[in-house]
Design goal:
Layout lengths: L12 H9 L4 E12 L5 H4 L1 H4 L3 H8 L2 E12 L3 E6 L5 H8 L7 E6 L2 E2 L5 H11 E4 L11 H11 L4 H14 L15 H14 L4 E5 L7 H18 L2 E6 L2 H7 L2 E6 L2 E6 L1 H6 L4 H6 L11 H4 L13 E2 L5 H11 L3 E5 L2 E6 L1 H9 L3 H5 L1
Helix pairs in contact: 7-8, 7-9, 8-9, 15-16
This protein binds adenosine-5'-triphosphate and magnesium ion (MG).
Family: Belongs to the ABC transporter superfamily.
InterPro entries: AAA+_ATPase, ABC_osmolyte_uptake_ATP-bind, ABC_transporter-like_ATP-bd, ABC_transporter-like_CS, Gly-betaine_transp_ATP-bd, P-loop_NTPase
Protein name: Glycine betaine/L-proline ABC transporter ATP-binding protein
């Protein structure tokens, strides 16, 4: 078996190199990050007799809670990086560690190549005020201030003059669809509107990264849907980098370019929605994604089979990232196979059987066997 050089985090050098070659800039780089709560927490990460144990076992032996355990990942510029997991899996702790609202117990953490763990107070303040803005679940608005002044708050503590910050805040209020409500106080707004204020406030400082900790979980489903679409729109229009925490799988699949699935403080799988749903890393992940409508996540690139004689030249053409759900329609209409075409080249074909197998969760290798 070929061995791959890895750094301490288990991420291979070739993977790191690949990210650099892609020209994808890394915003946050996280390596072997630990957060342990409890007495003498710093001894836990370095203790090899503890690192292999489950969170419960560590708690029994040491009285400490390992909330984040040896977590490594990169957040690339312009992506929506989702952290998903059940309650207590360590999501909030992880995202708070990124700006040291919670102090990590061990590991490495960089933003744009700068060592976050080495930052002094004033550099940290700058990080939180200008570079990474957080949107919280419970809005965190100032009750006695108007909408406009809440949105302007971050600019005010940056020291921006009144006229300028109000003009900028107005722009953000308009952007998130709250025009006309500038003079209201938070208590006079619905939950969805309050969260739009929270979003506008985070956007006002024009941060490099937006950090969301379950921002929509207090909202009812229809308003939640609205807010999700708002985030998708903002991301599409501005390409802003986002780290988005949720325990809601459909939200993760809708928003995430990549998803890190956490369990007991560890990342059990990190991949695109299609990778997570199509190739779950273990039974835990498989169970998590079991009820996902696969045809709405998986693409024909995964479903296709090699073209047989003549097939490469006829039938409807589909792009490789066409969802299986859409391909079903095309294949049903044409009655035969459809071609998967990229840059004029036929990569393969999808017919009734391939598409049905994907929906049923049967992999091609299983069919062949
Ligand atoms: N200040 C603290 N002291 C001790 N333990 C803590 C502290 N904060 C969090 N924990 C523990 O760390 C673990 C991870 O908590 P965290 O809040 O990060 O989970 P979460 O994934 O955000 O959960 P939720 O979905 O409920 O918000 C939990 O076991 C929690 O009890
Ligand atoms: Mg949380």
């Amino acid at each position: 078996m070929a061995t791959v050089a890895t750094d301490a985090s288990g991420i291979s050098e070739s993977q790191n190199a690949a990210a650099a070659e892609d020209g994808r800039d890394v915003v946050f780089s996280v390596r072997d990050l630990w957060k342990v709560f409890g007495p003498k927490a710093e001894r836990v990460p370095g203790d090899a007799s503890l690192t292999g144990l489950s969170a419960d076992e560590v708690r029994e032996r040491t009285g400490c809670t390992p909330a984040v355990r040896e977590v490594s990942f990169d957040v690339h510029k312009g992506e929506v990086f989702v952290v998903m997991g059940l309650s207590g899996s360590g999501k909030s702790t992880l995202v708070r560690c990124l700006t040291r609202l919670i102090e990590p117990t061990g590991g490495k953490l960089e933003i744009d190549g700068e060592d976050v763990l080495a930052m002094d107070k004033s550099a940290l303040r700058d990080l939180r005020r200008h570079r990474a803005s957080m949107v919280f679940q419970h809005f965190g608005l100032l009750p006695h201030r108007t909408v406009l002044d809440n949105v302007a708050y971050g600019l005010e503590i940056q020291g921006m003059g009144k006229a300028e910050r109000r003009a900028r805040a107005q722009e953000m209020v308009d952007k998130v669809g709250l025009s006309g409500l500038e003079k209201r106080r938070p208590g006079q707004l619905s939950g969805g509107q309050q969260q739009r204020v929270g979003l506008a406030r985070a956007l006002a400082v024009d941060p490099e990264v937006l950090l969301f900790d379950e921002p929509f979980s207090a909202l009812d489903p229809l308003i939640r849907r609205d807010m999700q679409e708002e985030v998708v729109r903002l991301h599409r229009e501005e390409g802003r980098t986002m780290v988005f925490i949720t325990h809601d799988l459909s939200e993760a699949l809708l928003l995430g370019d990549r998803i890190a699935l956490m369990r007991d403080g560890e990342i059990v799988q990190l991949g695109t929605p299609e990778e997570i749903v199509g190739s779950p890393a273990d039974d835990y992940v498989r169970d998590f994604v079991r009820d996902v409508p696969r045809e709405q996540v998986l693409t024909v690139r995964r479903a296709m089979r090699p073209a047989e004689a003549g097939e490469a030249d006829e039938g409807p053409a589909l792009a490789p990232d066409t969802l299986v759900g859409h391909a079903i329609e095309a294949v049903a209409r044409s009655g035969g196979a459809a071609r998967v075409v990229e840059n004029g080249r036929c990569l393969g074909v999808v017919d009734h059987a391939c598409l049905l197998n994907v929906v049923a969760g049967i992999e091609r290798e299983e069919v062949a066997a």
